[in-house]
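Run log // design_07
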């Protein structure tokens, strides 16, 4: 399926692999959105199943222990921080640019005065529901389509897209930091599978840390962008396999092959279509996706991470699904929300917390 192209906030959707990805993931008004599906480029009229189905495994044994609710919070990192939010918008710093984008969950008033909000480089306007494409306005003059950014030591390109996203979903920094730490302390090359990998920032972070990475996204555009990011940092020799394919079809094939991974990141859209018209519905297909992911976890697996955006559900829905999926595996399932905290103009003044998405993570202990 095409993978996200738009995320939070995006309205578009993509298929299991999700090119167009998340809405603005960050808390946008929930409209059925699927990841940048819009970004997910081409929507075929003929709908076909997301992938050949197989029955769910019958799991036995105790469910893993649980930690809930867990709030994973970021104050920003590298070239990103959330400056302020309010009145349905968020004011963000991405490298040299100050940007305003819609944010449905910012129900309060901005903390900073209006003159701060007026001194911005780019404002996303137009269609704000996740399905439609919008436009960028550049108050200080036209800007280039891309610009360099850095997070967790990885260089990549920011890009003004028509779906309000800019090529990275910074709330994921907490997952990437966790993954980076696991890879660095493992004492062996870990195998990481990044499903719905989008523009590849997570894949590059893992590879730089020493992992062998398989990056899967159904969008050719997203894969191309990821390769641009790899080239920008002169990281062409890193052990990354870039796979342009429907995510569900890929993992089912990996299961048949007996392939195994130590860490699996999966960030599926709510709804999407794949490159061949495959249809993905999160609530229908997520149980099977997690079931297959468990089967391809290695005996010494370090973690299985699921993030869900723009869905009308409690984190308990994916928490209990993860615990059922991991019956008999031991370990702990921790679930809750990813949030980004306002950091002011200098990036150092903690303010209000903005919820972006739900997550559930299984770890062996």
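design_07 sequence
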């Amino acid at each position: 399926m095409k993978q996200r192209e738009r995320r939070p906030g995006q309205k578009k959707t993509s298929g299991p692999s999700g090119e167009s990805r998340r809405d603005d993931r960050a808390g946008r008004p929930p409209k059925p959105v699927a990841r940048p599906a819009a970004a997910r480029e081409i929507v075929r009229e003929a709908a076909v199943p997301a992938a050949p189905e197989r029955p769910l495994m019958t799991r036995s044994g105790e469910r893993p222990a649980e930690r809930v609710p867990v709030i994973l919070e970021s104050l920003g990192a590298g070239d990103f921080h959330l400056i302020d939010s309010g009145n349905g918008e968020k004011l963000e710093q991405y490298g040299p640019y100050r940007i305003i984008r819609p944010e449905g969950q910012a129900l309060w008033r901005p903390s900073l005065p209006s003159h701060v909000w007026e001194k911005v480089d780019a404002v996303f306007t137009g269609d704000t529901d996740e399905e439609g494409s919008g436009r960028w306005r550049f108050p200080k003059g036209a800007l280039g389509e891309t610009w360099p950014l850095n997070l967790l030591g990885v260089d990549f390109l920011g890009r003004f897209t028509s779906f309000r996203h800019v090529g990275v979903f910074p709330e994921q920094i907490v997952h990437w930091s966790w993954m980076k730490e696991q890879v660095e302390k493992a004492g062996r090359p870990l195998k990481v599978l990044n499903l719905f990998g989008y523009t590849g920032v997570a894949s590059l972070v893992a590879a730089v840390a020493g992992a062998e990475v398989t990056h899967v996204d159904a969008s050719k555009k997203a894969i191309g962008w990821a390769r641009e990011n790899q080239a920008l940092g002169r990281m062409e020799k890193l052990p990354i396999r870039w796979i342009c394919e429907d995510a569900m079809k890929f993992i089912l094939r990996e299961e048949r092959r007996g392939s195994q991974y130590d860490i699996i990141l999966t960030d599926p859209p709510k709804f999407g279509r794949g490159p061949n018209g495959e249809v993905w519905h999160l609530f229908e297909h997520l149980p099977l996706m997690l079931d297959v992911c468990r089967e391809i976890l290695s005996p010494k697996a370090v973690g299985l991470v699921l993030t869900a955006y723009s869905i009308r559900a409690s984190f308990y829905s994916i928490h209990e699904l993860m615990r059922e999926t991991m019956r008999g595996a031991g370990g702990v399932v921790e679930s809750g929300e990813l949030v980004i905290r306002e950091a002011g103009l200098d990036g150092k003044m903690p303010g209000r917390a903005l919820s972006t998405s739900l997550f559930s993570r299984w770890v062996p202990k």
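Confidence is low (pLDDT under 50) at residues 1-47.
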